[in-house]
Amino acid sequence: MNAMTDSGPAADDAARAQELLRRHRQTIDNVDAALVHLLAERFKCTQAVGRLKAENDLPPADPAREARQVERLRALADESGLDPVFAERFLRFIVREVIRHHEQIADEERPSA
């Protein structure tokens, strides 16, 4: 067998690797799509919470709940084999966005002077 041809064990291994790579990437794409949809649903709900807080003059942030959620998410991450530090950073990023949205909603709800 000539090493210059595209057939043989090395070519078969490369083709299998390419097919596995394609399958893994398709799964990653599916998970990414699911994450986007889940985040969209989460933010719809947190927008409703923001309106409820604004209507009842409640603060945009709830540090005690946030602390409980961080502990809960870290434990879930650990049980799932996900780095708890990453999970905490991800949650804190989301919470910062939620608080920002709640502050915007509260500003919109305030009567103009």
Could you outline the blueprint of secondary structure elements for this entry?
Elements: H1 9-55, H2 63-80, H3 84-109
Helix pairs in contact: 1-3, 2-3
Please describe the structure with a list of short key phrases separated by commas or semicolons.
Chorismate Mutase Domain, subunit A, mainly alpha, Chorismate_mutase-related, Chorismate_II_sf, single chain, Chorismate mutase, CM_bact, 113 residues
Précis, in short:
The protein is mainly α.
Structural summary, described in words:
Its EC number is 5.4.99.5. It comes from Helcobacillus massiliensis. One of its GO terms (biological process) is chorismate metabolic process. This is Chorismate mutase. This protein has helices at 9-55, 63-80, 84-109. The protein is mainly α. The chain has one domain: Chorismate mutase (Chorismate Mutase Domain, subunit A). The N and C termini lie far apart (86 Å).
Please report the distance between the alpha carbons of the first and last residues.
86 Å
Q: Return the string of H and E elements.
A: HHH
**Major sheet size, sense and barrel closure:** none
Helix-strand category = mainly alpha
Q: Which CATH class?
A: Mainly Alpha
- Beta-strand level of the residues, as a percent range? under 5%
CATH architecture: Up-down Bundle
Mean pLDDT: 93
Poorly predicted regions? none
CATH topology: Chorismate Mutase Domain, subunit A
Task: Figure out the total of helices.
Answer: 3
**Rg on CA atoms, Å:** 23 Å
Helix content: over 70%
InterPro entries: Chorismate_II_sf (IPR036263), Chorismate_mutase-related (IPR051331), CM_bact (IPR010951), CM_dom_sf (IPR036979), CM_II_prokaryot (IPR002701)
GO biological process, one term: salicylic acid biosynthetic process
Enzyme class: isomerase
GO molecular function: chorismate mutase activity
